[in-house]
Structures are given as C-alpha cells and as structure tokens.
C-alpha cells in the first residue's frame, strides 16, 4: 500500500490517499478534495507508478467530507470504478438533493439552538457555500460495519470498522500488511489534531458517546500502525486513541468549569469560553464540539438543559470545588 500525500488548506493538514497497485486490481482509499491542484497531484502520483485514473477498479471512502471524496466522481467517470462508502454517508456522497436539504435544515436549526449570533451565521453560511464541492458525484455502493472485501491479487482483505462520531458513516479499513495488523483510520484517528465531533456532522446522535466508544475500540484493537486521513502514519494507535479520550475528559471538566463560573448559558457562550473568537469553519466546529460535550453531560445527569441554556445539576458545583484538578471520567 502506498500513501499519497495531497495538499489541503484545511487545518487538519495535508490529505492522504492510499493506493493498492501491486495486485490484479487497482484500489484507492479516499481521493483528496476536488481542487484542480489536488487532481494534478494525484494524477502525477499515478503517472509515477505507470498508472492513470482509468486503471482504478475500486474506490473505498472513509466518510462523506469533500476533502476525502472530491475526486471520486471524476475517477469513476474515467475508469468505471465501483465506489464504496458506509450506508449512512452514501446519499451525501452521491449528491442526493433530499439528503443535502435535510443536512442544511438541521445545521440551521442547530445554529439557532446553539445561540450562534446572526452575523456569525452569515459568515459561516458564506464560507460553506464558497467551499463548493465535487464537480461530479459518483454512484455509490454502500457497506456496513464488519463487511469484508477481498482484493484480487493481494494476500490481505479490507474489513470495515464503523467509527461514527466525526461523521455518521466514518469508517476505518482494517488490514494486514507485512504480517502487521494495521488500519486506515481516516479521520477517526489523526496524529496532531483531535477530530471535531458535534459540528463536522450534525446528523450524528450522541456524537461524543459514539466517538469515545470508537476510540476505545482502537485502544482495545491495539493495531501496529494507523494510516490517518491527514498527515503522517501513527505508530502507536492505541496510545494516540487513549490520549484523545483523556483530552475529552479534560474538556468535559472545562465545560463544567465554564458553567460553574458563568451560570446558566447557551452553547455559544460555552464555546466562546473554551475557544475564544472563532472565524471561518471554526464557527461551526467550536459550538458543535461544545454541544457534543453539553449533550453528553446532560445525559449523564451532571448538566441540566432548560430551553437552549445549560446549568450545572444541583450539587455539582460543590463536587467541582472538591475535586478541582481531577479529571471527570466520561462514560460511553
């Protein structure tokens, strides 16, 4: 498997596409975004290996975000490749109008519920509209958790591991390379940033709980290496996953501390306390992440929601004062 690094102006860093080209079929995992520069980079990487887009037989997509799916339609049009994605994300990748309308309606509803100021909503909506998307949407064959795909001419398979949280259909692909148990983790596990939950896909119900469960699955699997959707390979996936779990425990404490200091307030106010002034796509990610934590803490009984505001449950302030620097354990 070859890792192909592709440019990306997003904060996560350069994208990765993964190419299997040593067997009887050519298989690609993720494609990068739809930008012409990315297309030129991917075409050049193929050319260096004596290949062209027309040679691709199958494409597996980790999730619906455009920086991972942007060229899937272009490659399918040139090659007739079959494109696969999780059933939760397939309609968005295919450009289904009803799926996208439902997504946008839900986003706008959350913007209001979170208390996002109108001027910030305007900036965010303009940013999202200007981001564009793939020029051609592929036809997608859906898969689900546990599905296994044989690769012709290779001594290993790809097994789907559904890891919802960052996106409803986010999936990893588990495989064996040179006798090592490895995984293409997409955005479920990144080496530098912690993947956003709550804002990156507002369709995900109980996003933090689902993501924590996915991370614990990575810890338990104890893979030898992870190949992420952005930046460099991760040589200690279990350690990185545990770090992110710990990160969210610390953030939960910060959310509770914000409510303790400010009293009842909405999601936007908590987000401002955690992240400060937000611009561009972070206007979505900041309150989205805050909401994911508030929703999780509400179900745990630590936070009470009243309308669109949240407050600490009775007795929690005293417990916070007693525990102070200790971390709260998040259940999932």
Automatic annotation (TrEMBL):
Q: Which SMART domains match?
A: Lactamase_B
**Domain Metallo-beta-lactamase residue range list:** 14-230
Q: Which Gene3D superfamilies does the UniProt record give? A: Ribonuclease Z/Hydroxyacylglutathione hydrolase-like (3.60.15.10), Winged helix-like DNA-binding domain superfamily/Winged helix DNA-binding domain (1.10.10.10)
Q: Which domain of life is it from?
A: Archaea
Read off the Pfam families from this record: Lactamase_B (PF00753)
Coiled-coil residue spans: none
The UniProt entry, under PANTHER family, shows:
ENDORIBONUCLEASE LACTB2, METALLO-BETA-LACTAMASE SUPERFAMILY POTEIN
This one is known as Glyoxylase, beta-lactamase superfamily II
Species source reads Natronorubrum texcoconense
| Top-level taxonomy | Archaea, Methanobacteriati, Methanobacteriota, Stenosarchaea group, Halobacteria
